[in-house]
Design brief:
The chain is an all-beta fold. Helix content is about 0%, strand content about 50%.
Length: about 120
């Protein structure tokens, strides 16, 4: 259900479509766009990712920075040097634009995190 008061949007995350992410280098990852352009947010996108046990995001780089908040579970984040750090619920990360990174879940419960970015399609 979506509630709209003037320009404010209130959504139930459980009502947002969860899609499997299908790109090279991704294994067992789903995504929800919790808030984005379809909700009137032209500048910021809030996404929820779920990395299933044994899954991973690609080891990739992109120009935009993002902030990440670990919501549930634990996993590893891989940095530009290939070092892996344990991450878990209650932690937040900042990943600069141009910084190579990856999320992995070698554990037996899903790793769930919010990832907030500036809309890469936003006019400059």
């Amino acid at each position: 259900m979506v509630y709209r008061r003037s320009i404010m949007i209130i959504k139930n995350n459980a009502d947002v479509l969860e899609k499997e992410v299908e790109e090279d280098g991704i294994n067992s990852v789903t995504q929800q766009i919790l808030i984005g352009p379809d909700d009137g947010s032209q500048n910021i996108i809030m996404r929820r990712f779920r990395v299933l046990p044994g899954g991973n995001t690609p080891y990739h780089v992109h120009p935009h920075e993002h902030v990440v908040k670990i919501e549930n579970g634990k996993g590893h984040v891989v940095d530009v040097s290939g070092n892996e750090d344990l991450i878990h619920e209650g932690q937040s990360l900042f990943i600069a634009g141009g910084e190579k990174h990856q999320f992995k879940n070698p554990f037996d419960v899903p790793l769930e995190f919010l990832c907030i970015i500036l809309n890469p399609e936003m006019p400059k």
